[in-house]
Design a protein that fits this description.
single chain, 496 residues, alpha+beta, OB fold (Dihydrolipoamide Acetyltransferase, E2P), BirA Bifunctional Protein, domain 2, 2 domains, eight-stranded mixed β-sheet, 18 strands, 34% helix, 25% strand, elongated, disordered N terminus
Length: 496
């Protein structure tokens, strides 16, 4: 990014530093005494409906705000400026009639980007703009670098992500996305607390890589003299709490997966996971739907979402098995083919998918689903009955033990949630951990470790339960209609 794009030529920087030194000499640099009593939004909300005459009659005095100068018009003995605080923008009027001449002369030298405090009374201009008539001005923070691109905002997409503070400073739409993100997360907490769930915190550094199939980040604990893994998922710790006697728990957590960067993935992300003992899978699918619709209400986005070039109707939730969806999208395949490894391998090759020796029919079935079905699931769709091979922590289906009681929710062709009836048979779980270890020994860097302590916990008895994980970042993307995960992360990881 050019120096100009962040508002700084060397001459301008030098000029502003000279102004800063003058402020230092006066003892007025980086003041900390001004305490604003109002915000721009409060003033507009409270007085914005009053006419010019009504404001004059009310004689509203003693208002004070602090904000960044984003626009300034100097006109002899009277000037206008626009201040921006965290809540919005408001115009101020500065005249020699109301402030000391020395203060006015100082004001004329102030630059766009400076943070100032203003006290005064409220009126409307001839153009009917709500304006604060200043009777006191104070420089709070001198900005050494001019604001980028003035009112155009920060248009360089790379700069917007790398220097988010500039993006927030100049792009109100960006700020609104992150305000909505907080509202969405608040709605999630409110819903879970309303349903009697207990919010908990589990470790972010694990002695073993587990809880999900993904490549972990490895770190070193010097005092212990051993490697630790940044959390892939909190699942195994949350289920230990079920063993301990909590029936309903949830965590909104930071998780880490050592994978590639894209518009869909960030190596550090926010996951929402919850577990309920004695629950049903259908009941948890209903809760998942309820959480999403409640979040949509909090984001004020409506039921119709325009996500990139697709339109999504949140009023239309669907449900189907993975096998039925595969058969429906691949007319060449018959039901018996889904059990035949050779036939599935041949079909995958026809799709241009390279298979691995370690893949069984379950993994191949999933690959066909991902290649031919997933991106066409536009309206919310719960996909159920996943193969055991790709569900190492899920309970087997009683009627068909090759499949598990598991669901995934897809919206706009993307996975949003993963839930299943938890495996609580310690011997079955130990066998699946052993399968994961074998896969890791064969070169699978995403396979789990064998967690003996978790097996020990299961041997003490874990009640039947259903657990669900929902990606917060992707949910925010959907409900704010953003197509890149970087647009919903304040400070996304970027390539150097």
């Amino acid at each position: 990014m050019s120096e100009e794009n962040i508002g700084g030529e060397e001459g301008l920087l030098e000029e502003r530093r000279k102004k800063l030194e003058e402020l230092r000499g006066k003892g007025e640099a980086y003041g900390n005494s001004f305490q604003p009593q109002n915000t721009a939004k409060e003033i507009i909300d409270q007085y914005g409906e009053f006419t010019k005459d009504e404001l004059a009659k009310k004689n509203i005095k003693d208002l004070s705000i602090a904000g960044r100068v984003i626009l300034k018009r100097v006109m002899g003995n009277a000037s206008f400026a626009t201040l921006r605080d965290a809540s919005g923008d408001i115009q101020i009027y500065v005249t020699k009639n109301n402030v000391e001449e020395s203060v006015y002369e100082d004001f004329k030298t102030w630059d766009l980007g400076d943070i100032v405090g203003v006290s005064g009374s409220l009126f409307r201009t001839k153009t009917d703009e709500l304006t604060l008539d200043a009777w006191d001005l104070e420089m709070i923070t001198k900005s050494l670098r001019p604001m980028p691109e003035k009112f155009k905002g920060l248009t360089d997409i790379e700069a917007r992500y790398r220097q988010r503070y500039l993006d927030l400073m100049t792009n109100n739409q960006t700020k609104e996305v992150f305000i909505k993100r907080t509202r969405i997360i608040d709605s999630v907490r409110a819903k879970m607390n309303e349903r009697g769930y207990l919010e908990v915190e589990t470790p972010m550094m694990h002695p073993l890589a587990g809880g999900a199939v993904a490549r972990p980040f490895i770190t070193q604990h010097n005092a212990l003299g051993r490697d630790l893994y940044l959390r892939i998922a909190p699942e195994l710790y949350l289920k230990r709490l079920l063993v301990g006697g909590f029936d309903k728990v949830y965590e909104i957590n930071r998780s880490f997966r050592n994978e590639g960067l894209s518009t869909k993935h960030n190596p550090e992300f926010t996951m929402f996971e919850w577990y309920e003992a004695y629950a049903t899978m259908q009941g948890q699918m209903d809760l998942t739907k309820d959480i999403i619709l409640n979040a949509a209400k909090a984001a004020e986005c409506g039921m119709t979402i325009n996500w990139g070039d697709i339109k999504i109707d949140l009023n239309k939730f669907n449900q189907a098995t993975l096998s039925d969806l595969v058969l429906g999208a691949n007319k060449q395949l018959k039901s018996d083919d889904l059990k035949d490894k050779k036939n599935l391998e041949t079909y995958l090759k026809s799709l241009g998918v390279k298979t691995e020796k370690s893949w069984g029919v379950g993994r191949m079935l999933l690959e066909i689903f991902e290649e031919t079905v997933e991106e066409d699931l536009i309206n919310p769709t719960f996909v159920t009955e996943y193969p055991v091979e790709v569900s190492p922590l899920s309970r087997r289906n009683t009627e068909n033990p090759d499949f598990t009681d598991r669901f995934e929710l897809f919206i706009g062709g993307k996975e949003f949630a993963n839930g299943f009836c938890e495996l609580n048979d310690p011997d079955d779980q130990a066998e699946r951990f052993a399968d994961q270890v074998a896969a890791k020994d064969s070169g699978d860097k995403e396979a789990m470790d064998f967690d003996q302590d978790y097996i020990t916990a299961l041997e003490h008895g874990m009640p039947p339960a259903v657990g669900v994980g929902l990606g917060i970042d992707r949910l925010v993307m959907l409900l704010t209609e953003q197509t890149s995960i970087r647009d919903v992360l304040l400070f996304p990881q970027m390539k150097s």
